Amino acid sequence: MLNIALVPGVLGFDRIGPLHYFNGVAPHLERTCPGVTARALSTNPTGSVAGRAEVLAGELVRVFGSTEPVHLLAHSMGGLDARYLVAKDVGGLRARVRSVVSIGTPHRGSPVASLLDLGGLVPTLPDLGPVSREILHELCANVGAMHDLSEAGAAALDAACPDAASVRYLEVVGSGRAGDSPTAVVLRLTYRFVELVAGANDGVVPTTSASRGRTPFAVWPADHEDLVGHDLDGLTPTSAPAFALGLRAHRPRRPEADVRLRAVHVHSSADVRRSGHSRHVRPRAMHALGAVLARIARRVRHQETALDSSRECDA
Known about the structure:
Layout: E1 2-7, E2 15-16, E3 19-20, H1 25-32, E4 36-40, H2 49-64, E5 70-75, H3 77-87, E6 97-103, H4 111-119, H5 130-141, H6 143-149, H7 151-160, E7 168-174, H8 188-198, H9 207-210, E8 218-220, H10 243-249, H11 255-275, H12 281-314
Helix pairs in contact: 1-12, 2-3, 4-6, 10-12
């Protein structure tokens, strides 16, 4: 059995009603890779990395027990939490962690966070509705998150959290969607800002930051939220990027599922026409995300098998 813990970024939830932070990721991994147990964890919504790592340690024990080995698949700030947990051996859990896969993680910070941290601009951000209001409230109450995500804060964390020799580290980078619109509408302003000061990015995190300055395990043509299965241009909070169409096609079909699939197909096609994307390029590119997730799971499972064999030989 291969245990994969899904570690969230800012807001730190696993599920709110029908909304999953990792939208469809756990069932996809379990369906694609027999023997995998994937569970989404929660942590402090916008606390500091050190505080969130403490919560993460408790979650790992709660969900996977006190002895089972685990692989950490982390998005955005969650990658910093995972690295901190391993480097500082929080809760004595380093020996249990086999790998850390960070997806869209600002290992070297985000210019967006730097701007907000430096200027104290969080309280002045516009109110865009109930969800935005709740996010702003959390950010104002937990300013540690914004500092740790800034370029200065992340650089300090990066220096203080060297890789552990016993753990494998993989970085997945979002490079923006293919076509004329590199991100969802709500991320276009931050995308242009980050592009101006740091180059290629996913709408929030520069590719150089997400890759830690080394060759990434994979580069996905997706924005920051596409990376975990959310299309922010979608009709509902649970709308998935175009690649999810391919994943859903492999699921056992029920009549109501067919209706939802047709609805998503119509919506996705309209999105492609509105954005100016090639109708073929974006779905094919985004479908690759699901395949790479499965590849990660197979790779870390192979690593675990090798480690277990090595222990048996040592014994």
